[in-house]
Amino acid sequence: MDIRAPSTVSPRNEKIVVTPVSGGWCMSCTCEEPLMFLSGGHAEAEARRLAQCLARLGLSCDVEIHDRRDRLVGRMVYGPRTTDRARRTSTSAAVH
Fold first, then answer.
1. Considering the entire predicted model, what is its pTM?
2. Of 4, 25, 77, 94, which cross-links 43 as Cys (Cβ 3.0–4.6 Å)?
3. What is the CA 66 to chain-centroid distance, rounded?
């Protein structure tokens, strides 16, 4: 059994993919059930929103966008980060 200290464990990498399906678009993610959209733009916007949320939680996330012919037309990588607001909140909470 391989047991490592939390600081040496590599962060999980989530993947979000937007693909065309019959009658609309599908946003699938390794962390939740697939979601269906009528608009590709809405599916892409939700994929970006989810990736930003996961990044704020400290997870890396790859987003892949496919066109109607199922060709990869966009790829974005969101790295783990802490927003200034979250940093200020956690700092002020620790001080009080």
1. 0.71
2. 25
3. 16
Q: In this structure, what token pair is assigned to residue 37?
A: 């959209």
Total domains present in the chain: 1
Number of other CB atoms surrounding residue 24 within 10 Å = 13
Is residue 23 in some structural domain? yes
Say if 2 falls within a structural domain: no
Taking only the tens place, the pLDDT of each residue in 19-64 is 999 999 999 998 889 999 999 999 999 999 999 999 988 899 999 9
Q: Which residue has the tokens 């704020």?
A: 56
Give me the pLDDT at residue 86, please.
37
Residues in the chain: 96
Residue 81 is part of which domain span?
Answer: 11-95
- Domain assignment present for 5: no
Order of all β-strands in the sheet with 72-78: 32-37, 24-29, 13-21, 60-66, 72-78
